[in-house]
What does this fold into?
Amino acid sequence: MLFSQVAECFAEIEAEPSRIAMSSKIAGLLGKCSAEEARKLVYIIEGSIAPAYEGLEVGIGEKLAIKAIAQTTGYLEKDIEKEYKLVGDLGSVAEKLIAKKAQLSLSSSQNTLDKAYGAFVRIAKLGGAGSQQAKISLLAELLNGAQPAEAKYLVRFCLGKLRLGVGDPTIIDALSMMRHGDKRESEQLLRAFNLCSDLGEVAERYILGKNLSDFSARPFKPIRPALAERLSSAEEIIEKIGRCAAEAKYDGLRMQVHLEGKRVEIYSRKLEKMTHMFPEIVDAAKRLGANAAIFEGEALAYSQKEKRYLSFQETIQRKRKYGIEAMAKEFPLRLFAFDLMYKDGKDLTLEPYHKRRSMLEELVRGNGTIVASEQIIAESPQMLDQYFKRLVDAGLEGIIAKDLNQPYVAGARKFAWIKLKKSYGQMADTIDAVVVGYYLGKGARQEFEFGGLLACVKNAESGELETVAKIGSGFSEEEMRSFEDMLSKIKVSQKPAGVVSKLEPDFWVEPKYVVAVAADEITLSPMHTCGLSGGKGYALRFPRMVGMRHDKSPDDITTTAEIIRMFEIQKRRQETQAE
Ligand code: ATP
It folds into this structure.
C-alpha cells in the first residue's frame, strides 16, 4: 500500500465529523491492506508504532523536524520556523513547502506504508551519539519521496501530533464493518482488544481470518482494567446484585502483575510498564505458588518508622525513576490483591468472581507482601452498611461491592463491581476531567499567568469532550505555578478538534492533563455542554481541584453518561434527606 493512499484517507477523516463515516473510511482502507499492513496501519492511526503499553515513541522534536524539512526542500530553517509561528502546525508547513518543491522535481521513489512504518521504528529505536542526525536523515528521506499531503501526516506523526480524533472504538467499528458489522463479531473484536490491549494484533488476526471467539488473556499482554459503577447506598447495591462480596477500597496504586517463569511485569492502571519501580513486588510475585499468573491489586506504602500505611499522596512517591532501592527500603509496598484473571495456562476472566477469588486466596497464601484484599460476604443491606461505616471510620474511602457470579469485565464500567464512597458534598464521588483550556490570573492572582481551568468530561457515544466545569479554586500556589508552566507548553491556537464548548478560555490547550475535581453538587447550567439538552448542560457547582490524575489518560476520564447517573444518585440522596 502506498503511504499516499493512507494520507488521502487521513485527510478525508479529518474533514469528517461523523464517527460512523470515519469508521467506514478506515474500513475501506483496511480492506486494501494485507494482515501485516493492517497491524501497522492500526498503530499509526493510534498515533504510535506499537501498542501503547510498550511505551515506544517516535520522538522527533520540532527542531529536528524543521531540519529535515529544510534538508528536503532547500528552505532555510529560520524561514521554516517563521512560517511555523504563523501557521501553528509544522505538518501544514511541510505540505506547503513540499508542494512548491514538487513543481521543480518529481524524481524520488514513492513511500509505501511498510517503508514509512519501518522508518518510524528505526527513528524510535535510535539513541546515543549521532542519533539526532540519523533521525533527521530518515525523516528527510521519507519527505523526499512524499506528495504534499503525505508530508503533512508524516511530520505530524513523527512529532506525536497526528491527532485524527479516531479512538479505539472507531477502529473496532471499522474492523467489524469490513464484514458487514455482524454484532457477534464486533463483540468478539472488543473482547479480544480488552484482553490484550493491542488493537494491531487484533486487526492482523481478524484479517487473517482467525477465530476470535476463543481469544484468551496471556502473560505480558495487559488486560484493560475492569471498572466500578456507582450507587448511592447499601440498599441500592443489595437490590441490584443481591448477596455480594464487599472489599475494602484501598487508595493506592493499581497494579496488574504478570508472571511467567522467572519473568515478571507490572502494569499501571493506564497499562504503562512500571516493573522496575517496584522490586519488592517483583520478588514477591516470584514466590507465588504458580508458574504463570495475571492478577490485580492495589499497592499501599507502609512506613516502617511510623508503623502505618501511607496515604495515596505519599504512596504515589514510589512511582519514580530514580532512588528506587532506597525508597523501597524506607516505604516498602504491600499489594492488596483483588482479582486473578489467569493462572498456569488458563484464562479465568469468564469464571465467576467467587471462583476467581478462592483461587486468588490460594495463590497468595503465606506470601506476606502480596496479600488478599480485606473482604466480607454481605448477606443484607445492614451488614453491607455496617462494613462501609467501619471502613470509613478507619480512614478508608469506602468499599467496592462485587457480584459473586460475574466474570472479570475487562475494559468496561459495569455493575459487576460497585463503589460506595463517602460523599463529597452532595456528590457521590469526585470526577476526573481533562483540561482543555485555562484562564489568566485576576486580582490577587495577577502575579500568576494562571487563574483557572476549563475542564471536560467525555461523551463516550460521540467521542467528543464536553465542558462540565470552570475550576477556579482548590489550587495551592505551587500548583498554580506548575499549571502555568505545564499548560503554556501545550497551548493551541484554536479550540481543539472534538471539544464542544460555549465558553472561550483565555487559552485553549491540547487535551492532555487529567484532574480530579470535587464539587458541592451537579446542577443544570446554560453555560456548559455536558449532556446538553434543551439549552442546558450538566455542570459542577463550586468545583474545586482535588489533585492531578497522572495515572489517567484523557481516554479514561469520567463520561457524560456517568455524570448523568451521578446526578440521578444525587437526586435520590436529596429526596431521602428531605423525607
Ligand atoms: P475508576 O478506576 O473507577 O475510573 P478512580 O480511578 O477515580 O475510578 P475510584 O473511583 O476511586 O478510582 O475507585 C476505583 C479504583 O479503586 C480501582 O480502579 C482500583 O484501583 C481501586 N481499588 C481499591 N481497592 C479495590 C478493590 N478491593 N477492588 C477493586 N478495586 C479497588
Summary: The chain has a mean pLDDT of 92. Residues 227-228, 247-250, 254, 269, 298, 338, 373, 400, 419, 432 surround adenosine-5'-triphosphate (CB under 6 Å). The first strand starts at residue 227 and ends at 230. The radius of gyration is 25 Å.
